[in-house]
Amino acid sequence: MNVYTPILVLGLLAFGFAVFSAVIAPITGPKRYNRAKVDAYECGIEPTLQPIGGGRFPVKYYLTAMLFIVFDIEIVFLYPWAVAFDRMAVFGLIEMVLFIVTVLVVYAYVWRRRGLEWD
Amino acid sequence: MTNGQFGFFGTDPWGIVIVKVLGIFALLVLLTLFTIWWERRVVSRMQNRIGPNRVGPFGLLQSLMDGFKLALKEEIVPKGVHLAVYWIAPIVSATMAFVAFAVIPFGPVVEMFGTYTPLQLTDFPVSVLYVLAIASIGIYGIVLAGWSSGSIYPLLGSLRSSAQMISYEIAMGLSFVAVFLYAGSMSTSEIVTAQQPVWFAVILLPSFLIYVTAMVGETNRAPFDLPEAEGELVGGFHTEYSSMKFALFFLAEYINMVTVSALATTLFLGGWQAPWPLSLWEGANTGYWPILWWLAKVQIFIFIFIWLRGTLPRLRYDQFMKFGWKVLIPVSIAWILIVATARVVRNEMTISTTQILLSGGIVIALLLVASWLLQARADRKADAKEQEFAEAQARPFDAMAGGYPVPPMPGQQAELTTRRATASTTTQEAIDG
Q1: Structural domain that includes position B210
Q2: Cut 0.80: pTM above it
């Protein structure tokens, strides 16, 4: 058996359980229609009409996501390096220091341009 | 028997796989029910209350009953939702929470119904990376829930939540690098074996501390529970969810808590291996006993989660992001470089004590210079602030600055305007007269 097959079995069980729970609730629960109940919840005031997906949201989150990708790729490169570290020794260390310094230049630039500030 | 522990994975017969899957599923559901009850009891004690104690012994069945009650409640689907995505989101969250647990080791190789099998569902050379990947898919559940709700609070909550989780995932990922470096592997079972003489929490303490901080941020728990900041966002991404769909999000959150605790145990606290006084007993690391040690270690982390919630107030969003990006990430990167250098020095070079002392001295000198420079800078800033304050005090107070009536700034003295001055003098005269 493949080492990944057990994950599939666990995944199927979990998925089945989740779907069952999501489907069972509308059946077991009562249904009493009320116009106010199906409004979007905004602490009792008349809800703001908005398109699906909420229309616009701050571009700041996009920047965070981009920065995340930069650093996540750095991490992806660090993992195999760490696993094979003992076989590469000094060469591996110097190479990785150069790589990390390159990424740190980006990091310093973003920090300097106030990309790491939230309000 | 095959050589090495790896040989066991992927050789289990179907029966054993199904037993293990059911075992993990039951364990996670029970741990969730237990953790919810335990959290409520402990937080109650911390707040001088008693907590749930009615349903079952010590109130142990309280969370189970809450689950049944949720199933019997009306499910309200708001009219603004994107129905398909609204349905998919909780299912994604819950499924991924369960699946991430597949590679956590509970114990050594044991005999189960006549076959030898490790107490772990499966393992492969990149299993820690697998946990990170599945955790990332779990974030989709949160983003989709907020997006599909068609409401403002859930959308903001989900954006915050995802920004927070990806920010702390970097610190989390970086804290693993030192562990892989020492273990020489990304497989959970091999990392546990690599901690035979000494736990990684001892030799890689900074990594451990960074991981523990990041795991609290990653699971959206207090003091980092900004996505659920009741005062500003109601319930966060699950505001528009009710009944069992809400329960699925709740379940996913608690399973994620257990998973990150289990990962911390595996990577830093020696996994299922018995702690010191117990490890003197030879049978401690054989048979089914290790499950007990594993559970005890996981419970320690869960208690820390609850303790933090009962103790610390919630951080402000900007402070929280600043901490993640400007403190945890640079510290982790510096620590990785220190660990790597130290390992190369230890493996490759023979160095004398004088050289160690000399390099240590240089490092300390550099740190001293840096701290002096930083202190000088802080002093300059404080001086500038003081001067500004003095200047502000000297400046006359303009009660209508910018065209609006404003209160005096710190350091400014409000002067009575002519009308109020006249009014007060006339009143004084009236009293005197």
Answers
A1: 5-316
A2: yes
